[in-house]
Design a protein that fits this description.
Blueprint: H1 5-11, E1 12-13, E2 17-20, E3 26-29, H2 33-41, E4 55-60, E5 64-74, E6 79-86, E7 89-97, E8 105-109, E9 116-121, E10 126-135, E11 141-143, E12 151-156, H3 158-161, H4 172-179, E13 183-188, E14 209-213, H5 216-222, H6 226-243, E15 248-252, H7 269-282, E16 286-288, H8 309-325
Parallel strand pairs: 12-13, 12-14, 14-15, 15-16
Antiparallel strand pairs: 1-4, 2-3, 4-9, 4-11, 5-8, 5-10, 6-7, 6-9
Helix pairs in contact: 4-8, 6-7
Length: 330
């Protein structure tokens, strides 16, 4: 049986909508129209349309899952993956490419028919549209219940976005969300900085926990101007705390950069840490020490800045440990 878009919408998770495009195909939505406009005015075109942490999440008693998809847009990363979970275990991943050489069909057959929780995580690296989502004829599916599950909002730049994991579900944000079985929104935007205007009080999502991981792009944006750096971060957290007064907010210090000692025109990176510690404290934000979250070795990075698959996963484990120490539970 082929699911229609209303049926697909019922099992779409970690997004604010599953929108039907003019061609009838389905598209995940994770930002409000107002936020998309803010990003696109600043020339961040593909990032807000991409789908990190978004997934289908449902209980299913059949064997076959298949769908077709196409890439609407992509940025500097030409790869993408769809990760499929049987319960808590990843059992399949389609890794392909965004250009014309890539695959455009997903297919998987479970070894047996039984009721199981299925999650299919969408790519972090592209915007996409989907159609012909097919399950076994005569099978049954229901959305995974969300009642009682913690809600998490992940804010940040390209590392929060998911760069550069080859398994989309192993980004640090997805790793944290999976561990806590959270309903989440990943609002990471590659290349972005502290900008209070990117927050929308009308976002239809009320998080219990918020993590914020900006600061490394701001270092490049403001260079040696410590005052402007501090002002941007301070304004952002003031607005965030105003919108979400009941949420537990965590500020993650930027991860290690291989080039931090080769930028003499900028403030020392140690000052970034000092400024952010002060800003977090001023707004009652709990600190997570991102400097120690990923080993400071190039083997854990794709380019000396973005953690690779293992680096992202280790980062996620570090954040999980910090959240649990702060009392966050499933």
């Amino acid at each position: 049986m082929v699911l229609n878009n209303e049926q697909l919408k019922s099992i779409a998770a970690n997004c604010i909508d599953l929108r039907t495009r003019i061609n009838g195909r389905a598209q995940f939505v994770r930002f409000t129209d107002k936020q998309v406009e803010v990003y696109q005015k600043a020339n961040f075109v593909y990032q807000p349309i991409s789908t990190p942490c978004s997934c289908f999440d449902f209980i299913y008693d059949g064997e076959i899952i298949a769908f077709e998809f196409d890439v609407i847009c992509y940025g500097s990363r030409n790869f993408l993956s769809f990760d499929l979970y049987d319960g808590d275990v990843m059992v399949h991943s389609l890794f392909t490419y965004a250009d014309s050489e890539g695959q455009r069909q997903f297919f998987y057959k479970f070894p047996d028919k039984k009721e199981r929780r299925v999650r299919i995580f969408m790519p972090f690296s592209v915007g996409l549209e989907m159609w012909n989502f097919t399950l076994d004829d005569g099978s049954h599916f229901t959305p995974t219940p969300t009642d009682g599950r913690i809600k998490m909002l992940f804010l940040g730049d390209s590392i929060t976005h998911g760069y550069d994991t080859h398994y989309t579900s192993m980004s640090y944000a997805a790793t944290v969300a999976r561990h806590f079985d959270a309903v989440c929104l990943n609002h990471g935007v590659g290349g972005y900085v502290f900008k209070a205007e990117s927050l929308d009080e009308e976002l239809p999502f009320d998080p219990d926990v918020i993590t914020v991981a900006y600061g490394t792009n701001d270092w490049g944006r403001y260079g040696a101007d410590e005052e402007k750096y501090r002002e941007a971060a301070d304004e952002y957290f003031a607005r965030l705390c105003e919108i979400y007064p009941k949420a537990k907010i965590f500020g993650i210090l930027p991860v290690w950069r291989a080039d931090e000692d080769r930028r003499p025109e900028r403030m020392p990176f140690t000052r970034v840490y000092e400024i952010l510690r002060e800003v977090y404290a001023a707004h009652g934000v709990t600190l997570i020490d991102g400097e120690k979250a990923v080993p400071q070795m190039r083997n854990f990075y794709s380019d000396g800045l973005h953690p690779n698959t293992i680096g992202q996963h280790v980062y996620g484990l570090s954040v999980i440990e910090a959240l649990e120490k702060a009392g966050i539970k499933k």
